[in-house]
Design goal:
This protein is of the alpha/beta class. About 30% of the residues lie in helices and about 15% in strands. Helix 4 runs parallel beside helix 6.
């Protein structure tokens, strides 16, 4: 049987997760999507790292790991899907990654969000609006994520929250060589690149005849040519947003991506 996972799913443990977003609710939908593995990656900032924003302050390690209390072994056996407990961590405006190295071992996998630029004065200074400066910040955030050596995947890379209305201009300003350098670094680190439903499907900008973003196709095709690994992530915050894998697979096919990584703990 083909293994196909969705590793970017939020439950009601995330501050932005819907009350209906329970592990069981997602597991019930997995078979219909041909998903064999689901990964819960609630937002987190490690309390060992100073500087959490007020939004992150209650989304601690213990809070995120409390999801295990919702996953009794006898129930898991009946779900017919493999469950992985991850988290989505962030990087502040000083390029500090929100996880201590020894915390990494507590999770099956870790996603780092390099493009959460909607959190003004936490991930980016409020007065930064110049696209060249934003491009530079994005590349530095990827470097910070890789240098921290805790990431298994990069969440919604270059799907820039806070700047979706300028997405084409923002992404179009990256040269191929800039992107190739970044994607080769990601590939060399063995870190997976996420195909994210919200970034790719909901905010496409200018599209080709197939309905997919011209710029996203350029980016992910370059990533494939650089040897990157890929994983799927619906970034669902409620069960109704989970059933989008066929669309994501169609986008992957348009980029020549045929294989997908399994994000499992690399002890």
């Amino acid at each position: 049987m083909r293994t196909l996972g969705d590793y970017h799913i939020h439950t009601n443990l995330s501050n932005c997760g819907h009350s209906s977003a329970t592990p069981e609710a997602y597991a019930a939908l997995a078979a219909g999507e041909s998903i064999t593995d689901i990964g819960f990656s609630n937002h987190m900032w490690d309390e060992k790292i100073p500087g959490a924003s007020s939004w992150y302050s209650n989304q601690t390690v213990a809070h995120v790991l409390s999801i295990r209390d919702e996953l009794p072994a006898d129930t898991l056996a009946s779900w017919g899907v493999r469950v992985h407990i991850g988290c989505e961590i962030d990087i502040d405006k000083h390029f500090t990654v929100g996880m201590a190295s020894d915390t990494r071992a507590l999770f099956d996998y870790v996603l780092i969000a390099t493009s959460h630029l909607h959190m003004k004065d936490f991930t980016i200074d409020r007065d930064v609006t110049s696209l060249p400066e934003i491009r530079s910040i994005l590349l530095r955030r990827v470097d910070a994520a890789l240098n921290a050596r805790v990431a298994d995947g990069i969440a919604h890379p270059f799907g820039v929250l806070g700047f979706y209305d300028r997405q084409d201009e923002l992404l179009g300003g990256f040269t191929d060589n800039e992107l190739i350098g970044t994607f080769r670094s990601i590939a060399d680190a063995g870190v997976s690149v996420e195909l994210n439903a919200v970034a790719i499907l909901d905010n496409p900008g200018s599209t080709d005849a197939d309905g997919f973003s011209v710029e996203d196709k350029r980016l992910f095709t370059l990533a494939r040519e650089c040897g990157c690994r890929f994983h799927l992530g619906t970034d669902a915050h409620r069960p109704a947003a989970f059933c989008r894998h066929k669309e994501l697979l169609a986008f992957a096919d348009a980029c020549g991506i045929r294989e997908f990584a399994a994000l499992e703990h690399r002890r």
